[in-house]
Amino acid sequence: MSAPRRLLTTLAATVALTLLGTPGATGPVHAADRDPAAGPARDAPHRGGWTGTWGAAPSHAVPPLPGTSIRNVVHTSVGGRAARIRVTNRFGTAPLRIGAATVALQVPGAPRSPAAVPGSLRAATFGGEPSATVPAGRDLLSDPVPLRVPAAANLLVTLHTPGDPGPATQHRSALQTNFLAPGGDHTADGSGTPYTATTGSWHYLSGVDVLGSGARGTLVALGDSITDGSGSTASANRRWPDRLAARLRALPPHRRLGVVNAGIAGNRLLRDGTGPSALARLDADVLSRPGLRAVIVMIGINDIKGTPEAADPAVYEAAFRRLATRAHARGVHVVGGTIAPYAGHPGYTEAREAVRQAVNRFIRTSPLFDGVADFDAAVRDPARPNRILPAYDPGDHLHFNDAGLQAMADAVDLADLRLHTSALRTPALRAAVLRAAR
């Protein structure tokens, strides 16, 4: 084996994640981590190991839903022969008791139905038990659930909370109809009849992983409301990460990636506000995902136009440098996404536009990034480049309709995701490889 190859092998071995800590550190607690068909196994970095097929970043704490069964509807990016769910009590102040949990396939073609495909409903367990307690501030992974999960399908992940655990952790802007059944444990009801109420948020759920997807690993989209899908058609899965997942599914299996959406509407790069800042939640929402290979970062507009605003481009550069350095230390490929135009929005000023342009110049030219997704160039109006192309503008001059989000997904160069150089992006590692190659 050559010296450079030995060095890369050593690097690959050192960046594999062990998910033991709190979400604020490296990842969730494991109830168990075994393939029901293959016996004991830990997360592998990759192929054949766990892949993130869906995710949502916790954004808020809301009043609890005691005695309620919550049927979350989620859309898979890749399929597999088994699944596991990530239950979250990230913003809870007391232990969260989950009385029962199930996973099922939603009836195809019925995005607003709580009914399961007959025969698909499976109980989820935690360390072999049907119930579990999630400590405050933590996530908990279930045991593997033996269910064949298709790609591009909707799953019903149902959780029953028998008591009052205090503030409930949610992802507020799901852009998906989810269902509530008050008055008891209805997790095993496949008909959906008890689910008489709906919610536009995901409760107590932050991820679904699949086993044996054949994909190369997991890609996370880290961002704000644009990544979260604001402006897109509800219950249709037309956010730009969804459309990117569709493009990736068309590739040969060895180049496919599962896609996890870590966008939060209102989120910022530099400051906590609507959810922790992107820097503060990097470990929990990105680096803790299984089989992580790449992250696409598109965030900063809420810092530019928010209160207080951040008017110095240097602070954005420093934040992106910290983010990329932490990701590269784990061997993760980092793609920088330029910030889209927003003239016509009430928050727009010429001074803020100058900041956006300066930050975008940095993203386009910095060697910090392994690739660039030039979202700005993809969606701007050529006649007025400080504005969104009218065909992509849902009317608020900030977010994007379905066509605009498709254009954003198309702006990601899939060649940037071949992942050949991610382990070499820090100067020290590049220099070490070059020295060994001489």
From TrEMBL:
Q: Which residues form the signal peptide?
A: 1-31
InterPro entries in the record, alphabetically? GDSL_Rv0518-like, SGNH_hydro, SGNH_hydro_sf
Q: Which UniProt keywords apply?
A: Hydrolase, Signal
Which Pfam families would you find in this protein's record? Answer: Lipase_GDSL_2
One Gene Ontology term of the molecular function aspect = hydrolase activity
Q: What stretch or stretches form a coiled coil here?
A: none
Disordered, as annotated region: 22-68
| Highest taxon of source | Bacteria
SGNH hydrolase-type esterase domain: residues covered: 221-406
Q: What is this protein called?
A: SGNH/GDSL hydrolase family protein
Organism from which the protein derives: Streptomyces yaizuensis
